[in-house]
Specification:
Order of helices and strands: HHH
GO cellular component, one term: membrane
InterPro entries: Lycopene_cyclase_dom
Organism: Saccharomonospora glauca K62
Membrane topology: Multi-pass membrane protein
Protein name: Lycopene cyclase domain protein
Distance between the termini: 49 Å
Helix content: 55-70%
Length: 106
Amino acid sequence: MNGLGYTVPALASVVAVVVAELAWLRTGLFRRRAYWITMAIVLAFQVPVDGWLTKLSDPVVVYDPAHLSGLRFPFDIPVEDFLFGFSLVTAVLLAWLGAERRECAS
C-alpha cells in the first residue's frame, strides 16, 4: 500500500486546486508574480521548519513509511508535505480572490 495513505491525497489535492483555478475560478492567480513570490516565501519557512520536524536522524514528526512515496528532499522532508503545502496556500489565496470578486460584484 505504498503511498496510498498520504501520497495519493497529496497529489489529488494539487490536481483539485489547479483544476479549480483553471477550469472554474479563473482568477489568473498562477500568472501573478506576487503569487510566486508568496510561494517562495512559504518555501523559505517550510524547508527549515519541516526539515527539522521530519529529519530521519531525530524526527519530531514520524510518518508511517507505508503511506509515503519514500521521496524525501531536502533535509529528509517528504515531498508530500510540499504538495499539501502548495494546495493549502493556493486554495486559501483562491478563496480570498473569490470572496473579493463576490464583494466587488455586490
